[in-house]
Design a protein that fits this description.
With 420 residues, this protein is an all-alpha fold. 66% of the residues lie in helices and 3% in strands. The N and C termini lie far apart (59 Å).
């Protein structure tokens, strides 16, 4: 571990940034070489942008605004339909790249002084296992905008106009593209109370304005968020918590297989792993930097909100699906998994010999088992050729022509458009 930290610390910034971008492209190359619309990419964002134009920006999905997805969809309208899925995926990857590059930039030196650890953490973030529902997908792009906004709130004051513009854009786009700004508001307030300067006042103001807007959408304009029955029990809670380290250490593929066994049906197994995960989180809180503590709190608030109103299946009970059918609800584990990795880094840096050894071993398991196995678990675009053929025909068709286009996953209905 010490050798890796030394190598990461000594790496030159520009080549290391290129290395991160290459890893990001390689984690799921089919998103770039065989791109297709994923679910709402085509069935909501593109379809509504095509039929409604700029008015689609006011539409809500899941009870809140989705501004960044709709802006990307609008930006593709002058271009051929065949290009749109690739541009959607590139926008999603750009957001992940922004998080990783800000994480290793000098603007985080004060919040996390250990540069080598930050760089290794950025590598782990880029290759995060069990993130196939979110990584490189425009529909879930806001799940990466939220940690981007968190890092902006934690970063040093912008040094030039371009950094000021970036900070404001990230906070606004994140705030108007999901409910996460509500959970970021306490952190923004803490940062302002600690610094009391104009930069942090502006950050607090942007976050608060976005939070008020989204809350109004959730509880007035949108009439609340529709969800299915919860089916919540204490044992299911611990099993859901247990899936955080299981996803991080074993990846989506092995966790899915393990959850299908009779062992996972024994309540004591999930409870024991869940209790250990919470104990590790407590150790991370004690040993971690203020940055980690704030992110742990943000992750806990976000997970609490997700468990209160998850959106997985409107007919079945939500908690049993999450507990026994992973990767269902996989997006809800993203922030806790990032926090889990941060906990292991804190334990490896500041824990006693036993904690340090355990943390290093778990990080090694993630790198040697979870990540390699998940790199082979891809959302395959089996209908890529069919989509491209239909899109090219539609682009050349006369006004009034009807087109049908497959999306992934394959069991979803086709995107249907009428040529303008």
């Amino acid at each position: 571990m010490k050798r890796l930290l030394a190598l990461a610390d000594q790496a030159r910034p520009a080549p290391f940034a290129v290395f991160l971008l290459l890893l990001l492209a390689l984690r799921d190359w089919q998103n770039l070489l065989r791109p297709m619309f994923y679910a709402e990419d085509g069935l909501v964002w593109y379809e509504q942008a095509y039929t409604q134009g700029w008015a689609s920006l006011a539409n809500q999905e899941g009870g809140y605004l989705n501004t960044v997805q709709r802006l990307v969809a609008m930006a593709t309208q002058p271009l051929p339909l065949a290009w749109a899925p690739l541009l959607f995926n590139l926008a999603a990857y750009a957001m992940m790249a922004g998080v990783a590059l800000l994480l290793v930039s000098p603007r985080l030196d004060a919040a996390w002084p250990q540069r080598g650890a930050r760089r290794l953490f950025a590598v782990l973030f880029v290759l995060m296992p069990a993130a196939h529902e979110t990584a490189g997908i425009l529909t879930n792009m806001h799940w990466y905008l939220a940690p981007f906004a968190f890092l902006v709130l934690a970063s040093a004051a912008p040094a030039n106009p371009s950094q000021r513009l970036l900070d404001a854009a990230v906070l606004l786009l994140s705030g108007l593209s999901g409910p996460f700004c509500v959970f970021l508001l306490p952190f923004a307030l803490h940062q302002w109370l600690h610094r009391r300067d104009g930069v942090h006042a502006l950050r607090l103001g942007l976050t608060a304005a976005a939070a008020v807007t989204q809350l109004l959408c959730l509880y007035t304009v949108g009439g609340g968020r529709a969800v299915g029955p919860l089916g919540a029990t204490p044992s299911l809670f611990f099993q859901i918590i247990a899936l955080i380290p299981l996803h991080a250490e074993m990846g989506a593929r092995v966790t899915q297989l393990f959850a299908a066994t009779e062992i996972w049906r024994i309540p004591g197994v999930g409870i024991a792993i869940g209790v250990l995960a919470l104990a590790a989180g407590g150790a991370g809180w004690r040993l971690g930097t203020p940055l980690l503590r704030h992110f742990l709190l943000f992750s806990m608030l976000m997970l609490a909100g997700a468990l209160y109103k998850p959106l997985i299946d409107l007919e079945l009970e939500q908690w049993p699906i999450m507990a026994f059918q992973p990767p269902a609800g996989g997006r809800y584990y993203l922030f806790p998994m990032i926090a889990w990795s941060g906990v292991l880094f804190a334990m490896a840096a500041r824990g006693g010999p036993a904690l340090k050894r355990c943390a290093v071993d778990l990080l090694a398991v993630t790198c040697l088992i979870a990540i390699p196995l998940d790199l082979t678990l891809r959302q395959r675009g089996n209908d890529y050729e069919a989509f491209q053929a239909a899109a090219r025909a539609f682009d050349a068709a006369a006004p009034g022509s009807r087109g049908e286009f497959p999306v992934r996953p394959a069991f979803l209905r086709h995107l249907v458009l009428v040529k303008k």
